[in-house]
Design goal:
The protein is an alpha/beta fold. The chain has two domains: about 130 residues, Rossmann fold (3-Layer(aba) Sandwich), CATH 3.40.50.10860; about 150 residues, NAD(P)-binding Rossmann-like Domain (Rossmann fold). A six-stranded mixed β-sheet has the order 2-1-3-5-6-4. The chain has a six-stranded parallel β-sheet with strand order 9-8-7-10-11-12, with helices on both faces. Helix 1 packs across helix 11. The longest helix is centred in the middle third of the chain and has 17 residues. It is globular, with a radius of gyration of 19 Å. It starts with 5 loop residues before the first strand and ends with a helix.
Length: about 280
């Protein structure tokens, strides 16, 4: 008798392009697992209804991407500690008739950063563009690794206010002494920024000609600054193009996609066997 087919997937919006299906399908084939990874395009107003339907389909797990990472939380039975910390979920586990929310974006984001930069992170000033669920994961990653100064820039005053509450609670929970400030993107000052991270969808396909900051603002970055855009489609956003033209080191979101995806797969399979190289090759 054949083992029951492993059912996985991703909950996304119709506007969000995802390579997760390609990546996880390649991983399942490589591991010789009888399984599938489907994309479920869901409108925000239909999230609750669709999620209830998915729970009946005997899924093992799903990934969750923007704009659903925060809104899915009230629909879940439990959250892991890191999902509670970030207030965002990118991985859902269906287990023992329960739905458990987790967040692999934190480690995926951090592990993607080149080792030489991670090792030299202490004392650096970080600027993060955006204040949504992805930004929270990045903040947790940096705070957990002794970053001393961080600036959060957003376009929405309400979201920035919510971020202030989140940051205060997070700093207290992690027993950090980091200096953190928040401000509107219109007031951005990158003159002392060592690492710039974009967590907004600005510049993502199909709006590839957009950039979250002006080129003139980027010119204020120190010559040894590192620019990290967690967008992976296109592989080189307008932000990264500008940064490269200034001679700055850059990183796109492909490696973060691979790393967080591999960890999600390990969680669902309950084994540390995700073929990272195969997954990387599938999306590059």
């Amino acid at each position: 008798m054949l083992k029951e087919r492993l059912k996985l997937g991703i909950i996304k919006s119709s506007h969000t392009h995802s390579l997760s299906s390609i990546m996880h399908t390649a991983a399942l084939q490589h591991l010789n697992i009888n399984g599938e990874y489907k994309a479920y395009e869901v409108k925000s107003e239909d999230l609750e209804k669709v999620f209830k339907e998915l729970k009946k389909e005997k899924l093992k797990g799903v990934n969750v991407t923007i704009p659903h990472k925060i809104n899915i939380i009230p629909l879940l039975d439990e959250l892991t500690e890191r999902a509670k910390q970030t207030g965002a979920v990118n991985t859902v586990i269906f287990k023992d008739k329960k739905t458990i929310g987790d967040n692999t974006d934190i480690s995926g984001f951090w592990d993607a950063i080149p080792e030489k930069i991670r090792k030299d992170i202490f004392g650096k000033t970080i600027s993060i563009l955006g204040c949504g669920g992805a930004a929270y994961a990045c903040v947790i990653a940096f705070l957990s690794n002794n970053v001393s100064s961080m600036k959060i820039y957003g376009r929405n005053k309400k979201k920035l206010s919510d971020s202030k509450d989140f940051l205060d609670k997070t700093v207290e929970a992690l027993h950090c002494s980091a200096s953190i400030s928040i401000d509107l993107l219109s007031n951005i000052d990158l003159s002392n920024t060592n690492i710039l991270v974009n967590t907004t969808p600005v510049g993502m396909y199909p709006d590839v000609d957009e950039c979250p900051v002006e080129e003139e603002d980027l010119k204020k970055l120190p010559k040894d600054a590192f620019v990290y855009d967690i967008i992976y489609n296109p592989p080189e956003t307008k932000l990264l193009q500008y940064a490269k033209s200034l001679g700055l080191e850059t990183l796109n979101g492909i490696e973060m996609l691979v790393r967080q995806g591999a960890e999600s797969l390990n969680i669902w399979l309950e084994k540390d066997i995700a073929p990272i190289e195969v997954m990387r090759n599938a999306v590059t």
